[in-house]
Amino acid sequence: MPSARIAPDQRVGTIKTVNEYGAELVRDVGHVDLVVGTQKIVADLEEGFRRIEEYAFPLEDARAQAAYGIHSAVNKVLIINREITPGRITVVFVDEVLGF
Edge to edge, what strands does the sheet with 18-19 contain? Predict the structure, then answer.
């Protein structure tokens, strides 16, 4: 029996870090809009991973503990090197602190 796959047509979200060459985000959607605070821009992937582990994760873990009584974790990190479908991903940088 064939399986049906359901994916949203559009995803709006934010991410924990952006480097000069790519960004982490979810996949399998028709169009992705990311709204990113400029404080998340880093020089390279190494600095991006360090920012996730040393800055964003501890803040998110504290938030999850306060809100849900459980710890958070860095479970998935996706890196986009390029997009072959023109216009599929839109990144809007906002010059204010958004999230961690």
Answer: 22-23, 18-19, 41-42
